[in-house]
From TrEMBL:
It is an enzyme of class 2 (transferase). It catalyses: ATP + protein L-histidine = ADP + protein N-phospho-L-histidine. The keyword Phosphoprotein applies. Signal peptide: none annotated. It holds the Pfam family HATPase_c. The chain crosses the membrane at residues 7-27, 163-188. Residues 203-420 form the Histidine kinase domain. Its EC number is 2.7.13.3. InterPro entries: HATPase_C_sf (IPR036890), HATPase_dom (IPR003594), His_kinase_dom (IPR005467), HisK_dim/P_dom (IPR003661), HisK_dim/P_sf (IPR036097), Sig_transdc_His_kin-like_C (IPR004358). This is histidine kinase. The keyword Membrane applies. Keywords: Kinase, Membrane, Phosphoprotein, Transferase, Transmembrane, Transmembrane helix. GO terms for molecular function: kinase activity.
Length: 420
C-alpha cells in the first residue's frame, strides 16, 4: 500500500468513526427528548384528570389552563377551592398509576389565607413509603388562588436509567473507538518502523556495494600484467583494497554486533579504566578522519578519571560520538572533549560546532535505525545504529546520557557511576 492510499484509508476510517459517534450522540439526545416529552405529556394528562375529579367533588368549575409547568420536573395546578391533602394524595396516586407513572414524587398544598405551603409529603409509588419533603422544594408564588405543586426529584436520573440499551450501545461504541485508535497507533508505528528499516537496508546496500565495487575494480587493475612494472601503482591499489576491506569489515562488525547484542543479554567484562587515558587514545584515532583545519581538543579536568567499565564497549561509545561529531559537521570540525567528577559520578562531555539537531529529533536519535531526516539526500551514509548502541551500552554500565543541541552545536553528556 503506497503512502497516498494509506493516508486515504486512514482518513476515510476516521471520518466513518466520527460519523458513527455523531449519529449515536444525536439519536441518544433525540431518544432522551422523546422520553422526556412523553413523561411530561403523561403527567399533564394525569394532573388534568386530578383537577377534574377534585372540581367535581368540590362542585367547582375548572379554571382555564389550570396546569402550569414551572420546570422540567415541577408542576402546579390552580383550583377554586381548598384542597384536602388526603384526598389529593389518593387521587394523585391513582391517576399516576393509571398512566404508568412510577416515578417518586413530592406534593405540597398552598394555603392562600396564610400564604404558605401547609402540607406535603414525599411518596415512593413502588414501595408505597412516605417522607416529609424539604421546604425549599416548593417556592412561594405570587398567587391569590389555591393551588398544589407536584415535584419529581429523580426524573432525569430515572429517564437516563430507562435508556440502558443506549448506554450499552454507547459503551460498545466507545470500546470500538478505543480499539480503532489503538489499531491506528499500531499501524502508524509499524509503518514508521517499516520506513526506517527500508532506509536502513538502502543505506546498508550502499555501504556494502561501494567498498565491494572499489575492491573489485582494484583487483582487476592488479591482474593486469603491466602493473608489475609499476610498483607505485601496485602499492596504491593494494592500499585501496586494504582500506576498503577494513571499511567493509567495520560495517559488517557493526551490523553483526547490533544483531547479536541485546539489552537483556549484554555481557560486560569490567575492569578499572582511566577514562582520560582511553580518551587520548580515541582522540588520536579519530583525528585521522579530520579535514585540514579540524581539531579535537581535550579539556582534562579530572586526574585520574577511574571507573569500572568494559574497555571495548567504552571505546566504542567514545569513538561513535567523536565520529558523529566529525562526520555530521558541515563546517571545519571543532570538537571539545572534557571530563569532570564528583563523589558519585564521572562525567564525559563531547561538544561539537555542527548545525545541531532539531528538538523533535533529539528524543528519537537513540532509537534503533533512526536517522535525523535530511529530505531525500544523505551526504553521510549510515545505519542509524551508532547512537542506539551508545545508549544501550551506557545503560548497561548503569549510566545516563543526555543531549543538548542548538544551531551552534551539539553536546553529549554521559554520567558514569564511579562504582557500579
Amino acid at each position: 500500500m503506497n503512502r497516498k492510499t494509506f493516508h486515504l484509508v486512514v482518513f476515510l476510517a476516521t471520518i466513518s468513526i466520527s460519523g458513527i459517534l455523531f449519529i449515536q450522540i444525536f439519536w441518544m439526545g433525540k431518544a432522551f427528548d422523546l422520553s422526556n416529552k412523553q413523561f411530561e405529556h403523561n403527567v399533564n394528562l394525569a394532573l388534568l384528570n386530578v383537577t377534574s375529579k377534585l372540581c367535581e367533588i368540590n362542585q367547582n368549575e375548572i379554571l382555564p389552563d389550570p396546569i402550569e409547568q414551572l420546570s422540567s420536573n415541577y408542576f402546579i395546578v390552580n383550583l377554586n377551592n381548598k384542597i384536602a391533602p388526603e384526598l389529593l394524595e389518593s387521587v394523585l396516586k391513582n391517576e399516576f398509576q393509571k398512566r404508568e407513572i412510577t416515578e417518586d414524587f413530592e406534593y405540597g398544598v398552598f394555603d392562600c389565607t396564610n400564604k404558605e405551603m401547609v402540607y406535603g409529603r414525599y411518596i415512593n409509588l413502588k414501595t408505597n413509603t412516605y417522607a416529609s419533603p424539604a421546604s425549599s422544594i416548593f417556592p412561594k408564588l405570587n398567587k391569590d388562588a389555591y393551588y398544589f405543586g407536584v415535584y419529581f426529584p429523580n426524573k432525569t436520573s430515572t429517564l437516563v436509567g430507562e435508556m440502558w440499551i443506549w448506554g450499552f450501545s454507547s459503551l460498545v461504541l466507545v470500546v470500538v473507538v478505543v480499539f480503532f485508535g489503538y489499531t491506528l497507533s499500531v499501524i502508524f508505528r509499524q509503518k514508521k518502523l517499516s520506513d526506517i528499516q527500508k532506509d536502513f537496508i538502502n543505506n546498508m546496500t550502499h555501504e556494502f556495494k561501494t567498498p565491494i565495487s572499489t575492491i573489485a575494480l582494484s583487483s582487476g587493475v592488479l591482474q593486469s600484467p603491466e602493473i608489475m612494472h609499476q610498483p607505485e601503482r601496485l602499492t596504491q591499489y593494494a592500499q585501496i583494497i586494504k582500506k576498503e576491506a577494513s571499511r567493509l569489515q567495520n560495517q559488517v562488525d557493526r551490523v553483526l554486533q547490533m544483531a547479536t547484542v541485546e539489552k537483556d543479554t549484554i555481557s560486560l567484562t569490567k575492569q578499572e579504566i582511566d577514562l582520560n587515558e582511553l580518551l587520548i587514545q580515541c582522540i588520536q584515532s579519530a583525528q585521522l578522519n579530520l579535514i585540514q583545519g579540524g581539531e579535537i581538543r581535550f579539556d582534562q579536568q579530572t586526574t585520574p578519571a577511574l571507573l569500572q567499565a568494559d574497555k571495548v564497549h567504552l571505546t566504542n561509545i567514545i569513538y561513535n560520538l567523536l565520529d558523529n561529531a566529525i562526520k555530521y559537521n558541515e563546517t571545519i570540525p571543532k570538537v571539545v572533549v572534557s571530563t569532570s567528577s564528583n563523589t558519585k559520578t564521572l562525567v564525559l562531555t563531547i561538544r561539537d560546532n555542527g548545525k545541531g539537531i532539531d528538538k523533535k529529533d533529539q528524543e528519537l536519535v537513540f532509537k534503533k535505525f533512526y536517522r535525523v531526516p535530511t529530505g531525500n539526500v544523505h551526504n553521510v551514509k549510515g545505519f542509524g545504529l551508532g547512537l542506539y548502541y551508545v545508549k544501550m551500552m551506557v545503560d548497561a554500565h548503569h549510566g545516563k546520557i543526555a543531549i543538548d543541541s542548538s544551531p551552534e552545536g551539539t553536546t553529549f553528556s554521559i554520567q558514569f557511576p564511579i562504582r557500579s
